[in-house]
Amino acid sequence: MNQIVAGIAAVENRINSFFHNQNLGQLLRQSNIRKEKGVCLDTLFQFMLSLAFTGKNLYRLLESPDTPADIGKDTVYRLLNSVTANWRRFLLLLSTRVIVQKLLPLTDDTTTKVLIADDTLYSRDRSKHVELLARVHDHNTKRYLRGFRMLTLGWSDGNSFVPMMLSMLSSANEDNRLSPMRDGIDKRTNGYKRRQESMRKSTDVLVDMVKLAMTAGTTAQHLLFDSWFAFPATIKRIKALGMHTICMLKDTKVTYELQGWPLTLKELYKSVRKRCGRAKVLAEVVVTIGNDEKGVPVAAKIVFVRDRSSKKWLALLSTDTTLTAEEIIKLYGRRWDIEVFFKMAKSFLNLAKEFQSRSFDALVAHATLVCCRYIMLELVKRTNADPRTFGSLFHAICDEMRQISFTEALALLLTLLEETLNSVIGLCKEQVQRLIERFLETLPTTFRERLLLLAPE
Asked: With contact defined as beta carbons under 8 Å apart, do 237 and 207 qualify?
């Protein structure tokens, strides 16, 4: 029992430290996330942040004697259901702060930083009247389920993954939407904008998110995603923003131009020269995927890789043709970081399990809260694992040494002098005491009084 209490206290201390070190209170207010009365916003947000680490649901935690008295169920849900709160801005500000101030100083300048995009099922399969609830396709089970697609854009340097933005997508097809948007919402609010965004195509939303992430100063130059977004039109739009794309391709009717001939992916593989032996990279070729807005052909490198699980092959595309085939494969391997994030969020951080609100605003707020928890854990992991963070320990010790006043240092020296006179010269304790008292009488009054206060009784 004592170990459990100690563990909860350690988690609360860690959350409190993360909240104040990253200045989350200021970021919340900059994102128009406010409370007019009642419990302090900082206290309420830290309470919600710690909910996943207590092992209790909201009802049980509110009954706990350690919960602040002013926090109730209605207090929590009023914050989650706020239409004016800009949770996207809050997550972007927090992730940018962590990346720029904490992670980039620990990352070598030659290391390639990337953005990773993917979506996952936000399941509400038992719900009927959740706002904008839709039938969405689950890539894992190959079935249509009730819920939303949580489109996420994150940053990675190969060691740490930080979610930067998310969009809760319903369905662009009106026939697949099971519940309508709530009426009477002010069109100027962030909640209305997020609802309108949820009914757009995922590729359009992805391009807007990439455009916003590029202004954050994360120095990322490549975007990674899987074959679900690998359409030439989307790749060209992202290239026009100044961002290179590395993605997986699937064999469809989409054609790629090689020496003036439009070829499908299977036809392209048959036409290129293969490497000999059991090479992992079977072939690579530079093609064009169409023209940009100015009519200039957009070049891309396609790399065919041996599939270890079968006798087939896999194809990767990169608009950065200066990269080698090995570099493209290595960079695309980082896409697994976002899959780890999804698994962690669903299995341990209570994504889609913690709150059961019918409001679309609460879904966005809760998903942002889960991302905030993950950023905290990722920062702790990087701080504990990276030896370069020991430098902060050195500076902390130096600051502690500077805090030792001149009076304390003088008292320490007098104590050492007393021990030396007793052991080396052989003076008795009374003689040493008289010498020190005579020395103290020659000191200014201020130092003499402080030394007397520090002297042991």
From this structure: yes
